[in-house]
Amino acid sequence: MVFTDLVNSTAIIKQLCDEDTMARDRTYHETILKPHSQRVETTLEKYRGRKVDTQGDSYFLRFAHPIQAVRWAVEIQTSHSIDPILTPLGPLSVRIGIHIGYPLLEGENLVGYDVHYASRVAAFGNGGQILLSEAMAALVRTASIKGLQLYCHGERDFKGIGNEPIFELLYAGKQPQPLKNEPATIKVAPDTKHNKSQKETQRDTSATEKRLRPLIFRISFLMPFSVVLLLVLVAIPLINPSYISNLCDILPICAENKWEARHYKAENQAKKARELAQEATDYDALKQASDQLEEAINQFESIPPNATIYPTVQKVLPGYKQELTKMKNRLKTDIFKR
């Protein structure tokens, strides 16, 4: 989820040299807001983004993948840097906040706690900044995107939520900036969670070694027994192949875990297929969703009746089959025909 807002928009309108408020509003819309909106909306499709809502000059956006949201935000800020929209107060500035969560879908709108969280992240921004929640920062850090860095601003008081850490996304050599209404001095090192001194690293390593020493001793003590057990497990099928046709048949717990894991995988794949179908605007996207859902249904149907999870499968399977039929019918319509 992405929230954007223009910085000092009210002050900009006041500084426009028009005769009355209505004329200033019209000039602001035509020469400042409209060019910015065109940049936002024309780049959304490229990054699989969608407009959820607008309020004044603010945007609420959603993206199919969080990394696409990050790349979109970088492109928007870069475009304003390279080709600025001029105002009476200088180049137009945009603040962007990004959070990843699980909002509720209400018609075409998104609602819930995570939506409020995302808006709180954006509210701390100054012009030109891209701010991230802790969850979003962790995802970006894991993705290791070339050219992007994180700067930790520490914890801030999120209205109605509490103290939460906030991160700034740095790109193209950009330096961290103070947050909204904060002094210009930056004291925190970029992403301090991962910038320890050599002494701190050595100290942490020594402490880790002390904690692991008893575990290493136990592993070395049990290793010979583990080797013997492994040899026995390998030898039994060789002596009598029919004795162990499937290890999971001998261990019911293992078998149940296997079917539960298959159900979990199929459930996730079916949900992703459903989301992809909702966002599909062309034949290929809808066909991909249909294929994914059909594969998930096959996974459901491979779970045997004696599995504990089987009753749950029987409850959800008819609904997914019905959705697959609807998808295939959509593929036959004039809109989606090749």
Automatic annotation (TrEMBL):
Keywords assigned: Coiled coil, Lyase, Membrane, Transmembrane, Transmembrane helix
Stored PROSITE patterns: GUANYLATE_CYCLASE_2
Top-rank taxon, per record: Bacteria
Entry EC number(s): 4.6.1.-
Ranges annotated as biased composition (Basic and acidic residues): 190-207
Any GO MF annotation of the entry: lyase activity
Organism: Floridaenema evergladense BLCC-F167
Entries under Pfam families matching the protein: Guanylate_cyc
SUPFAM superfamilies: Nucleotide cyclase (SSF55073)
The protein, known as: Adenylate/guanylate cyclase domain-containing protein
Ranges where the Guanylate cyclase domain occurs: 1-122
